From TrEMBL:
<dbReference type="InterPro" id="IPR016163">
    <property type="entry name" value="Ald_DH_C"/>
</dbReference>
<dbReference type="InterPro" id="IPR016162">
    <property type="entry name" value="Ald_DH_N"/>
</dbReference>
<feature type="domain" description="Aldehyde dehydrogenase">
    <location>
        <begin position="17"/>
        <end position="481"/>
    </location>
</feature>
<dbReference type="InterPro" id="IPR016161">
    <property type="entry name" value="Ald_DH/histidinol_DH"/>
</dbReference>
<protein>
    <submittedName>
        <fullName>Aldehyde dehydrogenase family protein</fullName>
    </submittedName>
</protein>
<keyword id="KW-0560">Oxidoreductase</keyword>
<dbReference type="Pfam" id="PF00171">
    <property type="entry name" value="Aldedh"/>
</dbReference>
<dbReference type="InterPro" id="IPR029510">
    <property type="entry name" value="Ald_DH_CS_GLU"/>
</dbReference>
<dbReference type="InterPro" id="IPR015590">
    <property type="entry name" value="Aldehyde_DH_dom"/>
</dbReference>
<comment type="similarity">
    <text>Belongs to the aldehyde dehydrogenase family.</text>
</comment>
<dbReference type="InterPro" id="IPR016160">
    <property type="entry name" value="Ald_DH_CS_CYS"/>
</dbReference>
<feature type="active site">
    <location>
        <position position="254"/>
    </location>
</feature>
<dbReference type="GO" id="GO:0016620">
    <property type="term" value="F:oxidoreductase activity, acting on the aldehyde or oxo group of donors, NAD or NADP as acceptor"/>
</dbReference>
<dbReference type="InterPro" id="IPR054869">
    <property type="entry name" value="AlphKGSA_gudD"/>
</dbReference>
Length: 485
């Protein structure tokens, strides 16, 4: 089955596309043109979840008995299908949440690569032999699946984030109950179509759509769950942690960022400007790793600011399907309102708006805003503290690298951070002292590599890591085995 534009997206339960008991739907509006519904998303209820839970439990028993390589074969098949359908999936993503078509294609290709990476993990070791104090015994560890795992995903990476949670969950023998963000559920259904086409056993992976506050909460509270993995806002993440602790199940959270970039006086100007544009404004600034605070040493401040504003003025804003477009719209009405309110707050609190923050004249009837560049931003201002999740850059001028580092660390978040410098001493100070899970030198703050651990410090995550070999830590439990004849 392949859903067509404008259709109602059904739940994928026990290997079948299934209507919700509720009969209620919400439109998934195209952010590039508010008059278009990309599809209709069901408001599923607990009764829908109950059916899926029974199927998940039964399916997991058989799935865990398959060998790792056999589970990997299914993931290889899904990867091949997703690769064949790459343009179609990417176009759905662009139409549904607004990122440009080349970015959507890149993300979908990343989804293919993640599936292949974890398919390969099915062949790798899942334990260690440990010398016992008893010379006649054999002691070793093995990894066992958690059981049924819930995946709650956001709308900003509708393919990569679900896949980097679902693929490791499956390869290590878990069954998955997947609740995508409603703003990206048409794209999520495309991923499910690939699993369906690969004939993954019924019940092993299931998708149910619905409102976060209702279905999401019902999922976390469901007794069938043995673990929950979440990416999204801090507010929701904290609630999930509380519910998971109350029930004694494992949880993993990846949440917000307020990512700084430090531009040292000796930085390569063009490199720093281009990386700030790309890290701060690609995907309309809607990445948890997006550059938000730009901390610049006074020796290079004026040149950097002028060149940055010059380049921002050149960026073409428009429909992500238009090949001329550099930056698409905000993903939803609420995201758009949030971004505009932060821009207003920045001005009210005394920052200087150098450029942008307006509705572009030539753009269509969508959630478009021109990228905003502020200067004279001070650490106590709201735009220097809170995650905006939009195309807004806050310039902060400093004298010394020590001051830059102190300001960079003056945040409740600690996800990603970059420095631009040619000085090895600056690099080492930054690497050692920056409180962030991802630190990058002469590279933009956004962008993660699927084979490396990803996660934040402070309020940015549950202090766990996703992706790469780190994923095994969350999706399995260690069993220590002692054998003696
Ligand atoms: N770290 C990241 O990558 C992301 C951060 N955000 C931040 O969150 C802000 C708001 O975006 P939202 O889409 O509203 O994020 P959100 O945290 O509300 O939504 C993320 C996911 O959680 C679900 N959800 C919502 N309420 C829930 C609940 N009570 N229980 C269980 N699941 C629930 C949603 O349906 C969605 O699937 C953004 O402006 C941004 O600052 C949003 C998306 C991704
Ligand atoms: O920068 C990236 O590629 C990943 C960002 C991310 O995980 C997020 O925005 O949630």
């Amino acid at each position: 089955m392949a859903f067509k534009a404008g259709e109602t997206i059904l739940n994928y339960i026990n290997g079948r596309w299934t209507a919700s008991v509720s009969g209620e739907v919400d439109a998934s509006i195209s952010p590039a043109d508010k008059s278009l519904a990309v599809g209709y998303i069901q408001r599923s209820k607990k009764a829908d979840l109950d059916g899926a839970a029974v199927a998940a439990k039964a399916a997991q028993m058989a799935w865990r008995k398959l060998s790792g390589p056999a589970r990997g074969e299914y993931l290889y098949k899904v990867a091949d299908i997703l690769e064949r359908r790459l343009d179609e999936v990417a176009e759905t993503m662009t139409r549904e949440m607004g990122k440009t078509f080349p970015e959507a294609k890149g993300e979908t290709a990343r989804g293919v690569a993640i599936l292949r990476y974890y398919a390969g993990e099915g062949m790798r070791k899942i334990g260690d032999v440990i010398p016992s104090t008893d010379s006649e015994a054999l002691m070793f560890t093995s990894r066992v699946p958690l059981g049924v795992v819930g995946v709650i995903s956001p709308w900003n990476f509708p393919v990569a984030i679900p896949i980097w949670k679902i693929a490791p969950a499956l390869i290590y023998g878990n069954a998955v109950l997947f609740k995508p963000a409603s703003e990206a559920a048409v794209t999520a259904a495309k991923i499910m179509e690939c699993f369906d086409e690969a004939k993954i056993p019924a019940g092993v992976i299931q998708m149910i759509t619905g409102k976060g506050s209702e279905l999401g909460q019902a999922l976390i509270d469901h007794p069938v769950l043995n673990g929950i993995t979440f990416t999204g806002s801090n507010q929701v993440g904290k609630r999930i942690a509380q519910s998971a602790v109350a029930r004694g199940i494992k949880y993993q959270l990846e949440m917000g960022g307020k990512n700084p970039v430090i531009v040292a006086a000796d930085a390569d100007l063009e490199q720093a400007v281009e990386a700030t544009l790309s890290g701060g404004l690609k995907s309309t600034g809607q990445k948890c790793t997006a550059t938000s605070r730009v901390i610049v040493q006074s020796g290079i401040y004026e040149a950097f600011r002028n060149r940055l504003v010059e380049r921002v003025q050149e960026l073409k804003i428009g429909d992500g399907m238009d090949p001329q477009t550099w930056m698409g719209p905000c993903a939803s009405a609420s995201q758009y309102e949030t971004v505009l309110s932060y821009i207003q707050k920045g001005q009210e609190e005394g920052a200087t708006l150098l450029f942008g923050g307006t509705v572009p004249e030539q753009a269509g009837d969508g959630f478009y805003v021109t990228p905003a560049v502020f200067e004279k931003v001070t650490p106590e201002m709201t735009i220097a503290k809170e995650e905006i999740f939009g195309p807004v850059l806050a310039l902060i001028q400093v004298e010394t690298l020590e001051e830059a580092l102190q300001l960079a660390n003056d945040s409740e978040f600690g996800l990603s951070a970059s420095i631009f410098t040619k000085n090895i001493g600056n690099m080492l100070s930054f690497i050692n002292d920056m409180e962030a899970g991802l630190v990058r030198v002469n590279a933009e703050s956004a962008g993660v590599e699927l084979q490396a651990p990803f996660g934040g410090m402070k309020q940015s995550s549950s202090h766990s890591r996703e992706q790469g070999t780190a994923a095994i830590e969350f999706f399995t439990a260690i069993k220590t085995v002692f054998i003696k004849s």
